[in-house]
Specification:
Elements lengths: L12 E4 L3 E5 H4 L7 E7 L4 E7 L1 H5 L8 E3 L1 E3 L2 E5 L1 H11 L6 E8 L4 E5 L10
Amino acid sequence: MFEWIHNTVSTSTITLYPGNLTLNSSAASYFQDVRWVMLGVDHDQKQVAIRPISKREIDLHLVDQNQLHRISIGNGYARISNKTIMKQIAAMIGREVNGEKVSAQFREEETLLVFDLKELCEGVKA
């Protein structure tokens, strides 16, 4: 019997670098029409969420300007450069990051792209 191989191109993947989060084309597709995002960290669940922020939300001052992070959209990827969040992620997993890849899921009802860091915490006590 054949075991059918999953198409990894359609899987949302985030690559963690010391200074930025890089989203592959599938993950970046949720942010094509925005230039700003909010980043949230759940230390207990070891998860990070990225929330797209529309121009309308910014114009109506519906979000705190101090919580906005620029997202740069490239050809087939997106990048959020932020050393502070990367230091928080490193602290959560107990080591520096350098190109690790994690899967992400988009939660339509919350409008969040969420990725789990638990798999990177192997052997690290919470």
